[in-house]
Amino acid sequence: MAKRTLKPGALLCPVPVVMVSCGNLEEKNIITIAWTGIINSDPPLTYVSVRKSRYSHHLIEESGEFVINLTTEAMAYAADYCGVKSGRDVDKFEELHLTPEPGEQVHCPMIAESPVNLECKVREVHSYPTHDMFVAEIVAVHVDEAAFDERGRMPLENLGMLTYVHGQYLGVKKHSLGRFGFSVMKPKTRKRINREQHQERIEKNRSARSDRSNRADRRARGNSPNRSVGGSRPSGAGNGKQKKSEVTRSKKK
User: Fold this and answer.
1) Residue 142 bridge partners (DSSP)
2) What is the spatial distance between Cα 15 and Cα 19, in angstroms, rounded to a whole number?
3) Sorting pLDDT into bands at 50, 70 and 90, what band is 188?
4) What's the start-to-end Cα distance of the chain, in Å?
5) Which tens digit of pLDDT belongs to each residue from 18-43?
6) Exposed site from 48, 52, 129, 188, fewest CB < 10 Å?
7) For residue 199, how many C-alpha atoms fall within 13 Å in the half-sphere facing its CB?
8) What global pTM score does this model have?
9) Three-state DSSP class for 22?
């Protein structure tokens, strides 16, 4: 495979697209960040790298808190806006009609429209020439009820999560190429998982057919002519003929 050698640069991709809320309910802001990730599992540690000139930098530096709000395809416009507009000039919550929601462990607001919110408290700050890396402990996690299936699992891939690839926002592909450990999975385990996935597809298709049928029934009932409550004819039906016959009898008299 022939390759070109380029100058060193931040070409790692894909990367997450998260909206980091910071400050407090009085002085609040949102900054969109792609440079974030997980550092440790126990305790759960994450980080965000923020350019020193950004308005959010001093809010995080002063409070020592922030919230990582995961984004979806439906939030792409808001994510882009919060990445290019400065909180010095505009209230992004108000401008984008986003709902600030109080956190449980931190004073900065969460974004209610985000399906997953990670409350974070800064533990370390690593300073670099252009950015500061805020290493923080995840002290609380909030997940939208809609993210859970009937078995209580969290198939987040169904939420239409957002990612960033070299200047473009892309939705996460919903078709799974394999689950963790599939490369060394035993045949017996693979068969069991295939059966479970097949049953899930059957249930989803059955539910989708039922939804389509219900919508079709509602449309049919809505388009029925002379439809009224209780099946009776609309008020005034037949009155025209009745009046005409009464006029005719009156003339004969």
Assistant:
1) 117
2) 13
3) confident
4) 105
5) 999 999 988 999 999 999 999 999 99
6) 129
7) 7
8) 0.74
9) strand
Contacts of 99 (CB under 8 A, 6+ apart): 93, 111, 112, 113
DSSP helix/strand/coil, 90:
coil
Judged against a pLDDT cut of 60, whether residue 249 lies above it is answered with no
- Residues 6 or more apart whose CB falls under 8 angstroms from that of 107 comprise 24, 25, 63, 65
What are residue 162's DSSP bridge partners? Answer: 171
Instruction: Give the separation between CA 34 and CA 134, rounded to whole angstroms.
Output: 14
Residue 239 has pLDDT above 70, yes or no: no
Do the beta carbons of residue 140 and residue 103 sit within 8 Å? yes
CA 25 to centroid of chain Cα atoms:
22
Bridge partners of 165?
Answer: 168
Q: Closest by alpha carbon to 18, among 126, 115, 143?
A: 115
Task: In whole angstroms, give the CA distance from residue 155 to residue 68.
Answer: 19
Tokens of 143: 């997940």
Find tokens 């974030």 and name the residue: 36
Residue for token pair 């388009």: 223
Give me 215's structure tokens: 């919508």
User: How far, in Å, CA of 204 to CA of 155, rounded?
Assistant: 14
Tokens of 59: 């809010």
Integer Cα distance of 172 and 112 in angstroms: 21
Query: Over 60: is that where the pLDDT of 226 sits?
Result: no
- What CA–CA distance (Å, rounded) separates 230 from 225? 14
Is residue 20 within 8 A of residue 69, CB to CB? The reply is: yes
Query: What residue type is assigned to position 5 of the chain?
Result: T
* Neighbour count for residue 154 (Cβ, 10 Å): 14
Both structure tokens of 148:
């859970």
- Bridge partner residues of 37 (DSSP): 47
SS3 70: strand
